[in-house]
Amino acid sequence: MNLLAGGTKSVAERSFAAAALILALVGPLLFNEYWVSFILTQTFLIGIAAASLIFLSAYGGMVSLSQTALFGISAFALGNMVTQGEAKGLHLGWNPWLSVVLAILITTAVGLLFGAISSRSAGIYFLMITLTYSVIGTYFFGQVTIVSGFSGIGGIDNYTPSIVGSPTTQPNRLYYVALVVAILAYILIRYLVRTPFGLALQGVRDEPVRMSSLGFNVALHRTLAFGFAAFVASLAGILFAWWNGTVAPDTIGLQSTIDLLVICVIGGLRRVEGAWLGAFAFIVINNYVRDVSVPVLGGSFNTIIGLIFLVIVIVSPDGLMGIWDRLWSLGRRRGGSATGPVAATPSGSHG
Amino acid sequence: MSRLKVRGWKLLLPVLALAITAAAVSATAFAQPAAKVVRVAIMTDCKGGFAFGSEVDTGGAFAALAQYAGGKPVDKKKPTAGIKGAHAGGASIKIVGIGCGNDTVDVAIKETRRLMEQLKADVMIGPLSGDEAVAVARYAKQHPTKLFVIGTAGSQDPTLQLATKNVFRYHGDGAQWNAGSGEIAYKKLGWRKAAIIMDDYSFGWTSAAGFIADFCANGGSIVKRVFPPLGTTDYSSFIQQLPPPDKVDGYFWVVGGTGTSPSLTAFEQAYGKLDPKKVIGNLFFAFLGADKVVAPKFVGAYVGGFGTPWVGGLQNKQAKGYEAAINKWYPGLDGGNYADGFVYNYYNAAWAFVRGLTASGG
Question: In a 3-state reduction of DSSP, which class is residue B49?
Fold first, then answer.
């Protein structure tokens, strides 16, 4: 009896999760500095931003394209508040911790506002409204030069809290901070979707009309979910600002918006774990196929990530996590423990 | 059963693709740096408004490595194919990578990190444009053991305001490239009051500074400064902020890239044809297609340049030598326009690096 056919799926998943966590905890001992400071730290923080999108998609039925804008609002807010003497921006020189708290509050408030505006729309209209938020975010910070300008705000990594230290000379600190924040964000999402609010949100996702007739305020649930996702995205934005040292409008431009969506699709839009899996795959591919040219098609990263995206969408619309789910189903069938076809994992069942 | 097998294989396709990538990656991920050579990276743009820079800039830099460090181009028609055998001061020069920027800060930083941290470059020649260089100078400040020689970015900030000790520049900046234009405006064209419209980023500010310094030193005054953000497509609101032609003696125009022509068109729509004697431009008036679209409208106008003798060709002995060097190693580079600042500045940067390496004994 093979592994897939035997045991329970949750045991296998928990085993993988434990192994991944142990690997992450000892990462700085195993990997070289570039992998620790660039690939893995970036994976953790981009994964958090992707998790905010997957949360909205998987449990709220809302595919939001505004998560990069919210991510950016947090990073720009932090940059304006902590830096001093930059050419652009407010450079207020405030305490890093105070700035972190305010950046999170500002981003969450903007998220609630965005959510309130878009909460009564659905489908393609919701997508377009959130795309508009994304574009507004880019051009606001690009054109309102008192808070940034296209040059962006630099030197943010010089004003980190002591626990983070210097991301350049002490990369392991930011690595562990990002890891812990990623774990907490994951646990928080898992917790939230099991609360009465989370269950109601999933009801809103599946049957908004029925939920409304039962007395639930559909728009309010969607707005609050959006606000929560903005909170999660704001954590990623702060980590990004520390990690990159610079935040510029192109950080949250249309390309970044698409990249985040691609990350979520590669990882799987129906399971939060896919956020970090997708981020890891995307960042590694982006980093290592620069000099690879696809025969006939040419190109490099965009061609290869595009091909992988295409294959995943065709073969497993639920991304890499969906492949795992389906492989598990195949294994069970071969093991004889299931008869008829096994449906894809319902959204929220892993929540 | 066979259907299940086929589906299983289909499911494994993306996993297989990722596994192949992972296999390629693993060696690097666990590898430790081991080099006795000087590892050099070129940072330029291969996307965005300066996408042409990848071959042109690399060609300029590699021509200098061929000319002064004994390198041999792998392909004389394609500089990015690489160069082999370069050495100076007793050290081998190994090209570890060519960065691909897109004229944005974010990508410039990520590419710089890839070149310096993943590919372990000791020296970076680049980047190409103003804000990229500012971002790289900030990065350089955090990495004092690495060396950065700016490719052709013309903002002053990296070497004047930030003044990062391990960042060097061997070409002019935007202010130097417009030096004298203010004096010409005041003394030759008789301007006393001028308005400036400039891209709101480091190169725009630096370029305007070159005009302002001379013009104001001679007694002129700047009555209005308008800063359109980069990426602006409709300049009409910014043109309305400029004083009309009867209220000012002339305009210094520093709107570049895809904005040069639309900004001037917006002015014409508001105030009619712009008199060539009432406008002075910077190098934006003469490249990226502006030489064909914009320049014909302003015959007789003064414009700043790259500081290379690009009008009238290369004349003196040194310039002829430079031209011969480019022609020897990369014939036809940049359409034969060897005096283009992109080729010339990267050439100078690489040459300076070779001289420094030689002087320091590797």
Answer: helix
